[in-house]
Amino acid sequence: MPRIAFYAPMKSPNSPVPSGDREMARNLLLAIQARGDAVDLASDLRVFDKHGDKEVQAKLRHEADAEVLRLTCDLPADTALWVTYHNYYKAPDLIGPRVSTARNIPYVQLESTRAYSRLQGPWLGFAQAAHQACDAARVIFYHTANDLITLEREQFGNQALVELPPFLPASSLPQASSCDGPMLAVGMMRHGDKLASYRVLEQALRHLQGDWSLSIAGDGPARAEIEALMAKFGTKVRFLGQLDRDALRKAYATASLMVWPGVNEAYGMIYLEAQAHGIPVVAQDRPGVRDVLMPSDYPSVAEGAKGLAARLRTLLDNPALRSSQGSQSAAYIAARHLMPDATDRFWTAVDPLLEAST
């Protein structure tokens, strides 16, 4: 069995800070090693510049240079492949291509993006590095149709672009929800896009007539603002705080539906989790989000909060429809978004590289 070096420049899978990015990195590690191959986390170095700061970028390049020197010497002798997860203009892979070249092993990427609009301005150097890393990859696995657009347009040489849908780290579905409890929203309480989703959710709730209740799972620096935003609804909205895996499973076990607008979500692991539990999802039809949702007529962004509220009311008023859509959603996840499928897709594309390099 080959030994694989794995690296996530934006956030190590060992990071103590929960996020969808960390969750997906951990899932990918599990999927890659599912057939028994050894996978080593090559480095915990976080190469991430949030604000476009040249001094930060210079410091990170210096740290990356040191890691390249270390890994060129210290990477186990039987390492046969380097895999990098989430290379993009704020978090370019400054390590993997150089170590792979020095050690003469294939280099592949998972969930990489090309952003030519960033080849000017404060992220110029990092954007160039991200593009160069993309060019070095023999295979790039993409998670969404939106990512494929630029990857395909700028495909380098005979580089392979392979779909690997986001997935859950399981081989079977959990027990289906009873779908008779409150609505559920799950989202980190951060400023920016997460807060924007909470604002759209609050606007939808204002348009929601009749009886309803909502539980919100999540925590973070914007919690006080979100609690103030929802205060007008009184006891109809309940804050659960940040839940561990077991507690979140209990919340899914009775949720009548999952609601999350999905503002600028890359795709959203919560949508996969909810659907796997047989819970119908109410979200806006957005790039990335639509790649992980059972195909349906989700409200458009242009329909705004009223569109979300109308979909919520339809499902709340019709238990049979909730059950039917929940069952269809679970079947969709089972067919496309569980770990065995991800493992098969990964190794089908990678095994030929390893055979050619031996």
From TrEMBL:
It holds the Pfam family Glycos_transf_1. InterPro entries: Glyco_trans_1, Glycosyltransferase_grp1. Gene3D superfamilies: Glycogen Phosphorylase B. Residues 203-327 form the Glycosyl transferase family domain. It comes from the Bacteria. GO terms for molecular function: glycosyltransferase activity. The keyword Transferase applies. The lineage of its organism: Bacteria, Pseudomonadati, Pseudomonadota, Alphaproteobacteria, Rhodobacterales. Keywords: Transferase. SUPFAM superfamilies: UDP-Glycosyltransferase/glycogen phosphorylase (SSF53756). This is Glycosyltransferase involved in cell wall bisynthesis.
